[in-house]
Amino acid sequence: MRDPLGRPPALLLIPAGLATALLVVPLVAMVAATNWASLPDQLRSEPLRQALWLSLTTATAAALICLVLGLPLAWVLARVDFRFRGVLRALVSVPLVLPPVVAGVALRTTFGRRGLLGEPILDLTGFSFAFTTWGVVLSHVFVSLPFVVIAVEGAFRAAGREYDAAAATLGASRWTTFRRVTVPLAFPGIMAGLVLGWARALGEFGATITFNGNYPGTTQVMPNLIYVTRQSDQDAALALSLVMLLVSVGVLLALRDRWLGTP
Amino acid sequence: MRRLLALLLLTPGLVACGGDDDTTLQVLAAASLTEAYTALAEDYESDHFGVRVELIFGSSNDLAESVADGAPGDVLATADETAMQIAVDAGATAAVPQVFALNQLVIATAPGNPERIHSLDDLDGITWVRCADDVPCGRIAVTLLKHAGVTAEPVSLELDVKATLEKVTSGEADAGLVYASDAVTAGRAVRSVPIEGSAAVPAIYYVAPLSQAADGGLADDWINLVNSVAGDVALNNAGFTSR
Amino acid sequence: MSLAIDLRVPGRVDARFTLEPGEVLAVIGPNGAGKSSLVHALAGTVSAEGSAEMAGTDLLALPAQEREVGMVFQGQLLFPHLTALANVAFGPRSRGVPRAEAEARAQEWLDRFGIGDLSHRRPGELSGGQAQRVAIARALATRPRLLLLDEPLTGLDVKVAMALRIELGRHLSSYDGIAVLVTHDAIDALTIADRVLVLDEGRVAQLGTPEEVSQRPRTEHVARLVGLNVVRDGDTLISFTPQAVAVSLAEPVGSPRLRWQGRVADVSPHGDAVRVLVHAAPDLIADVTPAAATELDLTPDRAVWLSVKQTAVRRYEVGPEEVGTVTP
Fold first, then answer.
1. Do the chains contact at C91 and A162, CB–CB below 8 Å?
2. pLDDT of residue A4
3. How many helices (DSSP H) and strands (DSSP E) are in chain B?
4. For residue A91, how many other CB atoms are within 10 A of its CB?
5. Domain B2-102+203-237, second-level architecture
6. Which residues of chain A have pLDDT under 70?
7. Which pLDDT tens digit goes with each residue over C23-49?
8. Topology agreement, domain B2-102+203-237 and domain B105-200
9. In Å, how far is B138's CA from the nearest CA of chain A?
10. How confident is the model over B223-229, as a mean pLDDT?
11. Residue A232's closest chain B neighbor by CA?
12. CATH number of the structural domain spanning residue C73
């Protein structure tokens, strides 16, 4: 069926095509360069399984924590008028522009063994974030939270304050309104933000190697494994990259229609 | 017609031999050679008027890969044989690589060595790190640990020796297995504890001129400098041992 | 319980009036008069200063959730993700009524509005009239003591609006609280309301029974609404119908006080007659026969004289507290 508004203009299609090519061609090249024959062996390797499992579990845990912490913050930014709201929003976005390694240094300075909070925590509880899986989750939360907060804030704004007003006249407390009106209406946006945060956590590298270290089973997530393998076995590194690509794309595709509400 | 062609072909050579000011010698070297090579570059430039030494530091593997891919460069210096082999296999080296320095593994600890670490056996029970298995310094660490019969596991396998050192200097780890040259670079930030038997398993540094060198003579001059007494001094100062 | 209102929404409304128990008040006025702001202020969705006393409680001192006010919003604002039943049950449930009971009550309300079979539908699947019924049911389900309706019949099909108007009138007469109905349609004001409040530029311009307001309008807006001419004559207002106006090209003879000169602004058919809007001082409407319109060549920008007989004019006072906005 022809679009009644006319054909899309070349002035838009050409850059769109270039953008697509820029994003897709490197992935295609990677797939083409992979030694498919060695893939089954690669998949059986213990380091791969450990790293993949670790990546998936830490990213998911981080996404859930981002949900618990990020939803309320996004609500405050979207619904509460206070003086320094703009400043708060800017601060929340800082990890977005921070180079991941710098983020790692910041985390270490705060939660490391000699860190601002890390040292007291270590003295009090004997627990240290560094070199532990929970430390990895912490790094993931730090880099993913801005994505989640900003996406969800957008969803809350779009969901319309007027419904909040309607709920209030019906006697609903602000908490009830949040639970029964605001969140359900913003659900696709919230899901999209979560997925974004999850994907970001999955790919996180700089902060984790700086703060959390690299040990198979505890802190060696997929990006670390790929980096290390690259030093000695290019083919293996490509195969691992391919596995990560397939898993990520698979999850994103599976979630797309059901939860994100995009056609 | 032929004479014109010959003239055209010779012209670039004539221009090059003119000794102009912007001749650059590109030296690609393993990151651990930073201090030593920077010092030598100054010597080189004062001996070679009009030549600028451009030092490009990185991981031996990455540099060898790029050189194998045909990236420009005049000299390649790697921290282990495997990396140099990549360049050799690709035909990027113009001469047989030579060993020019050795780097021994040491234990880096916090200043004052509060955990009282005197050998690899003392690593048991403390928070320590080393390089990952696939990285040259990791391979050496594994060998030394096996020789010493130490089974203690590190808390992290760092991606390169700089990261290993950083874990110690930042206080996250009590000890790390790094090169002697790294301990020297860190200065007062760490205490360096020698490892028994490390002289037998050093990191072997190779240097070779590259076939894509713009000027083979200049490249050879660099290698000669590295092998000279001045070279030895610079390398020793940086923590390396001469071959 | 009567409702004594004395409220100000800065820049929008400054009104004082009292409503009797159980009455239905229609609020009319031109766009921007502050009608919506007034009801929103009573509902608590807009900040306001002042007081709204009902049975000893000042509504304005309470947050919206506690005012026991039911509001039907412009555009309904039905929760899109909930069914009609869940929408109507929302209020009772928010107030602690158990789910089953709330839904039973909601179903009763939907039945009462004749849409009981639509309870499982989402707002997106309802027609305009159906959605409006759900919105009204939702507001009434909480048993409010004050019901506010913000232009409930606007945007509906004429036939649908007519049917709903009759239904609404019935529901409001059986509703024992006070109802305030904002409308820009004269028919609503005249047929459903006990009294009519005319707002102009945020202030109360007139408050009276539909008869009073329509026969003795104090504002041009209402005059237009009910199809009358209203002119300020010294201390008094005079009103007369468009049919009573004589249009001529030459200056008419007779009382100099009841003639005006101006230019034709608009000419349109009105039933069997032709209605002419003339920019005199003030704007006036006159109904003439089609033949007369042709004869006088009444086209836009034509200069004409308008006059009216003394006997056809109704004269009344401008009240002391009213702020008349009729231009002399």
1. no
2. 85
3. 9, 10
4. 11
5. 3-Layer(aba) Sandwich (3.40)
6. 1, 257-263
7. 999 999 888 889 999 999 999 999 999
8. yes
9. 11
10. 92
11. B134
12. 3.40.50.300
Q: Do chains B and C touch (3 or more CB pairs under 8 A)?
A: no
> What residues does each domain of chain B span?
2-102+203-237, 105-200
Indicate the domain borders of chain A: 59-220
Nearest chain C Cα distance for residue A74, angstroms? 21
Question: Residues C52, C161: one domain?
Answer: yes
C-alpha C56: how far from its chain's center?
Answer: 28
Judged by a CB distance cut-off of 8 A, whether residue C320 touches chain A is: no
pLDDT at position C311: 86
The whole-angstrom separation of Cα B226 and Cα B232 is: 7
Q: Is residue C326 a part of any domain in this protein?
A: no
Q: How far apart are CA A129 and CA A112, in angstroms?
A: 7
What distance in Å separates the CA atoms of residue B218 and residue B26, rounded to the nearest whole number? 10
Q: With contacts defined as CB-CB under 8 Å, which chain A residues touch C66?
A: 171
Residue with tokens 């608009």: C266
B100 within 8 A of B77, measured Cβ to Cβ: yes
Reported pTM? 0.79
- Distance CA(B128)–CA(B114), nearest Å, equals 13
* 8 Å CB contact between C152 and C76: no
Helix (H, G, I), strand (E, B) or coil at B205: strand
Q: Which residues contact residue B139 at a Cβ distance below 8 angstroms, ignoring those fewer than 6 apart?
A: B80, B133
Count of domains for chain C: 2
Give the nearest partner residue to C94 out of A165, A171, A185, using CB atoms.
A171
Q: What span, in angstroms and rounded, lies between the C-alpha atoms of C183 and C155?
A: 12
Residue C200, φ and ψ in degrees, nearest 5 = -140, 125
**Option in A114, A215, A231 nearest B156 (CB):** A215
Residues C97-115 have a mean pLDDT of: 94
Query: What's the domain range around C237?
Result: 220-317
Gap from C166 CA to chain A (nearest CA, Å): 25
Q: What would the pLDDT profile of C42-79 be if each residue is shown by its tens digit? A: 999 999 999 999 988 999 999 999 999 999 998 889 99
Q: Using CA of residue A80, residue A85, residue A86, residue A90, what is the dihedral sign?
A: negative
Is C144 among the domain residues? yes
Cross-sheet strand order for the sheet of C13-19: C57-58, C49-54, C3-9, C13-19, C203-208, C195-200, C24-28, C178-182, C146-150, C69-72
Nearest-angstrom CA–CA distance, A239 and A258? 30
Residue C325 — very low, low, confident or very high, per pLDDT cuts 50/70/90?
A: very low
Contact A162 C73 (CB under 8 A): yes
Question: Mutate which of A79, A161, A170, A190 to disrupt the C interface (most C C-beta within 10 Å)?
Answer: A170
* Interface confidence (ipTM) of the complex: 0.80
Residue C297, CA distances (Å) to B24, C242, C303 in order = 96, 18, 10
Say how many residues make up chain B: 243
**Nearest by Cα to C111 from C78, C88, C129:** C88
Gap between the Cα atoms of C141 and C110, Å rounded: 10
Which member of B59, B159, B172 has the closest CB to residue A108? B172
The alpha carbon dihedral of C185, C190, C194, C195 has a sign of positive
Q: Based on the domain organization, do C148 and C275 belong to the same domain? A: no
Topology of domain B105-200 in CATH is: D-Maltodextrin-Binding Protein; domain 2 (3.40.190)
Running DSSP on this structure, what letter comes out for residue A221?
-
Q: How far apart are the first and last CA of chain A?
A: 17
Q: Among C180, C215, C250, which residue terminates a domain?
A: C215
All residues of chain A having their beta carbon less than 8 Å from the beta carbon of residue B167 are: 213
DSSP secondary structure letter of residue C257: G
Answer yes or no: is pLDDT of C136 > 90. Answer: yes
Does domain A59-220 fall under CATH 1.20.1740.10? My reply is no
